[in-house]
């Protein structure tokens, strides 16, 4: 939960800075919903599949690349602290 607070503490501000106001809801909502559906929705299936295949220890290796992609996206976000927000 401590790691999660690092995201939730700044998520609203980051979302407000990345997208202009006219597309902010769609810009935040669509990618988030798509990622949750593709990866969060399939995680139980993938975990069960690994377990049935006799490799339950592979599930963290499924999650690790997804975390790496998230980390890389966070690193490449533009710095907008000195820019005026589009309304």
From TrEMBL:
Membrane topology: Multi-pass membrane protein
The protein's name: Major facilitator superfamily (MFS) profile domain-containing protein
GO CC, any one term: plasma membrane
Keyword Cytoplasm carried by entry: no
SUPFAM superfamilies: MFS general substrate transporter
PANTHER family: ALPHA-KETOGLUTARATE PERMEASE
Keyword Transport in record: yes
């Amino acid at each position: 939960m401590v790691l999660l607070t690092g995201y939730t503490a700044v998520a609203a501000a980051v979302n407000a800075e990345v997208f202009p106001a006219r597309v902010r809801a769609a810009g935040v909502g669509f990618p988030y919903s798509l990622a949750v559906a593709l990866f969060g929705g399939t995680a139980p299936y993938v975990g069960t599949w690994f377990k049935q295949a006799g490799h339950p220890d592979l599930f963290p290796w499924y999650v690790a690349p997804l975390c790496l992609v998230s980390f890389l996206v966070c690193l490449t976000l533009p710095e907008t602290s000195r820019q005026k927000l589009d309304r």
